[in-house]
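Subject: Predicted fold for Ferredoxin, 112 residues

User T.R. writes:
Posting the sequence so we have a shared reference for the thread.
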Amino acid sequence: MTYVVTDNCIRCKYTDCVEVCPVDCFYEGENMLVIHPDECIDCGVCEPECPAEAIKPDTEPGLESWIKLNGDYAKTWPNLTTRRDPLPEAKEFDGVTDKLKDHFSPEPGQGD
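User M.O. replies:
I've generated the structure tokens; pasting them so everyone works from the same file.
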């Protein structure tokens, strides 16, 4: 099992999870984070830290596309190991559904 970042991270990008990760397995896109599935040690400390509740165990049903997205972008986006402020529109977009189609950016973030 590993953990996966899902839809609600898009245009929120809270980084509370990054700060507690003992293995630095978060990677930063322009408007969301992903978890590298080969680096995650399944400790679960990130899940309760996410204010947007966007982190889920990969054993939950229906997450196949998110598992793939996390794995693919973790290979190309830069590593992020320090906490930053969320995106300015985070509160507005927290809870908005189906953000992947209209709001996801494949562009990398800054990383460390």
